[in-house]
Amino acid sequence: MESTAKESTAKLDWNRAGQLLAWGGLIALGARRGGVLGWLAVGYGVERLSSLTFGVSIGQSLLAAAAASREPRHHFGEGTRDAVDEASWESFPASDPPGRGVG
User: Fold this and answer.
1) How far apart are CA 70 and CA 38, in angstroms?
2) How many Cα atoms sit within 13 Å of 31 on the Cβ side?
């Protein structure tokens, strides 16, 4: 039983090493070729290599960051505020009365 676990781990290690070599080779070939097709190959190779190495796709990370930047930064009233509430929220520090002793 123990030998099959070692064999499967060894297969995974060789599979991972082969993929690293393949995607690294695609990056190198794309950079050597140049032009639009070469740079597309470099981009795809970097995408696959980052996904394999770090477990995170660069493309998915960029899409998530772009989606997060489109969302409002503050949530007030759970979507139930109107224009007056919005104006009040945006002008909050300016609407405070002066402190005591200011005169």
Assistant:
1) 32
2) 8
Whether the pTM exceeds 0.85: the reply is no
- C-alpha 94: how far from its chain's center? 37
Closest CA to 23 of 57, 56, 2, 52: 52
Q: What is the pLDDT of residues 53-94, one digit of tens each?
A: 888 888 888 888 888 877 666 655 566 667 777 777 677 666
DSSP the chain: -HHHHHHHHHHHHHHHHHHHHHHHHHHHHHHHH-HHHHHHHHHHHHHHHHHHHHS--HHHHHHHHHHHHHS-S---GGG---HHHHHHHHTTGGGSPPPTT--
Break the chain into its structural domains and give their ranges.
1-59
Query: Phi/psi zone of residue 96: left (φ > 0), alpha (ψ -120 to 50 degrees), beta?
Result: beta
